[in-house]
Amino acid sequence: MKRIVLVLSAVCLTASLANANLLINGNFNDPATGDPPTSWSPWSWGSGWANHENNGGVTYDGSFYLVTGGLDYDTGGGGFYQIVPATAGIDYTLTVLSGADAWWLPYGEMRMFFLDAGDVELGNAVAGTVDPAVYGQNYDIAHPWSSYSLTATAPSGTTQIKVEFAEPHGTGSVWFENADLTAVPEPSTVGLVAGGLALLLGSKLRRRVSRS
Q: Comparing 203 with 98, which gets the higher pLDDT?
């Protein structure tokens, strides 16, 4: 009975890990000030910026969010990133809420860079969030908060993922909120746990039959 309980616990643990957010401070609410969010590193170039704000006219849920952007196209940009442990062969899904102010043609990006133990990039996955191609090539139109998702498999040799949110080219501010990174366990791992459970249940059933 104890073995079955242990295997069931392992199954539950595997399921919970698949749904756990691997990012630290993914809601960007720490600290509750304009200082850079805990565990996130800002960067900017040229006329760009990477801010941590809580503007009553913008905030999604009354809390802090990221603001990245630049003054004009290809004159500046900015973003935030965080590096977390990862495992090769596992599918990772990154989700985030994103929107933009009513400026020129803002364009946001969500990125996953797969790194080895020496911080060498082995591969990457990039997807747009706020995108003028979706809302039309019209100036000064606000882009409402919407959910965006990106999924990719970590290549061989991966030990880390660098998650990044950015407005790389300028043309206004893009907002990011409530980021989430989850991992789907390898099929072999799930199969091993399920197989172990089946063997234990079968063994217990055979013992019961032999005693009757």
A: 98
For the stretch 188-212, what's the b/e string if a residue is b when 16 or more beta carbons lie within 10 angstroms of its beta carbon? Answer: ebeeebeeebeebeeeeeeeeeeee
d(CA 70, CA 76) in angstroms, rounded, equals: 5
Domain limits at 118? 2-13+20-204
Report the CATH number that the domain containing residue 90 is assigned in CATH: 2.60.120.260
pTM here? 0.80
pLDDT confidence of 36, banded at 50, 70, 90? very high
| β-pairing verdict for 91-100 and 143-153 | antiparallel
Distance CA 25, CA 154 (A): 22
- Those residues whose C-beta lies under 8 Å from the C-beta of residue 203, and which sit 6 or more positions away, are none
Q: Is the CA virtual torsion 124, 130, 133, 137 positive or negative?
A: negative
Confirm whether 105 is domain-assigned. yes
User: In 3-state terms, what secondary structure has residue 211?
Assistant: helix
Question: In this predicted structure, what is the pLDDT of residue 187?
Answer: 55
- Span 62-83, pLDDT tens digits: 999 999 999 988 899 999 999 9
Q: Number of folded domains in the chain?
A: 1
